Amino acid sequence: MNTQALGVEYYLAGMRAALDDLPPSEVAEIMEDVSAHVAELSTELGEDETLEQRLGPPEQYAHELRQAAGYPPRTERLPVTTKNKLVTRPRAAAWGLVIATGVTLLAGAAALREPAILLLPGVLLVLSLALVHDRGPTQQEIMDLPETRRIQQWLTPEEGTPAERALTYLKSLQPAWWLVRAGLLGLGAVLLAGRDILGFLVVAAIAIISVFAGPRAKVDRRWLWFSLPASALAVGLLFQVVDVTANNLAYSSRNQSYPTPMTETYENIYVQDENGKWLTNVQLYDQDGNPINAQRQYYGCNGSDPQPMIPANRYPRPKIDYENGTCYTVTPSMSAPSSTPSTSPSSSGSAPSSSVPPTSVSPSK
Amino acid sequence: MDTSQLLKGVLDMAVLAVLRKDDGYGYDVVRRLRAGGLNDVGDASVYGTLRRLYNAGMLTSYVVPSEEGPHRKYYSINETGRVRLAESRETWRSFASTLDGLLEEVAA
């Protein structure tokens, strides 16, 4: 391969090709080291010097690196996955982690109402981690699963592309996210504190451990069984806090716009004296001498005739009686209160208002 | 005698020793090994050794963004690595004194 006078990119491409039988995660890690190395070396090169003169051809570099790293020679392919079994422990553990993370996200959105729901993903996580805990911090078997390799390839775009820059930028935000996550979890714990002391303790512990879990997971992938669900829980709690806040805002604005006055209204007032005799033409005043007016209801008789001027605070008020399309204001009979006290005289108590001869009828028409 | 053959057996120890003093990224480790007198050490061998020690759980790594060029991955020795280095040093010292003894006999 003629790589003379070609730049860093070409050299790196050659290296990547010479390593492409290795697990993508491992290739990605190597290339992370090597691209920094080659980039730094290229700035030190003399006028007519090439990378190949300094480092040898990329294939040779790759070969030397493989030997030192203890990888198998190029011809051998690393076993990607145990093909004879579809459901292996690493695969079950990986999917357990993914499902538990998803469940935590959903549970997180309900965790403030019912913290015990977190037991479900918790059990899932413990079980799935137990499957692979003995497989070491790199969890190479999980990294070698075809589905993991797919994700790795997807997350490892070509150097220099916008996608790669975006991912690098997002990666640089990770420590900030760890702090935000701890903050959100802490907030969740505080919100639980008054209602569920056990839930408070659990979520507070998760918040504290999550600060360390982020960096630890970089070194020991087993910490992902804590770190990923912790992130999901934080996001779930965020959703719920936003939801609750929005509801509270909506509730308080409803309260402001619809005050419910709890004042009773009266259509009419009937007065009895100490002997149980119904009184008529009683005028009521309050402590300030203002007339006490029940709700007016007899302005329906809007004939052209002048209505008799009845003070609004004179009780009982005339009732409206509609007859043959015309309306009369009828002085209420003594039958008006539906629950007449037993002491009331029978002679004046039971007759319906319509049958009572209008004593002071003022025909409106 | 070709020191590169000798180096193969002890590069692990040399890299761990260099990292015990201070964390370093790949090329930095190469330079420190050369500055320490291992002039024949190959870049690729050092990078491969770093990967192997890392995969064996003796090193941890973290990324430091660089203003010019790709970010640098720093390696630091952890407790497992320190234990391994201490063991290696014991082995090396006894091996070296044994060999010294043999060479003394030859010289005598």
Automatic annotation (TrEMBL), chain B:
Lineage top rank: taxon: Bacteria
Transcription regulator PadR N-terminal domain mapped to chain residues: 15-87
InterPro entries linked to this entry: Metal_resp_DNA-bind_regulator, Tscrpt_reg_PadR_N, WH-like_DNA-bd_sf, WH_DNA-bd_sf
Pfam family, one: PadR
Protein's UniProt name: PadR family transcriptional regulator
Organism of this sequence: Lentzea aerocolonigenes (Lechevalieria aerocolonigenes)
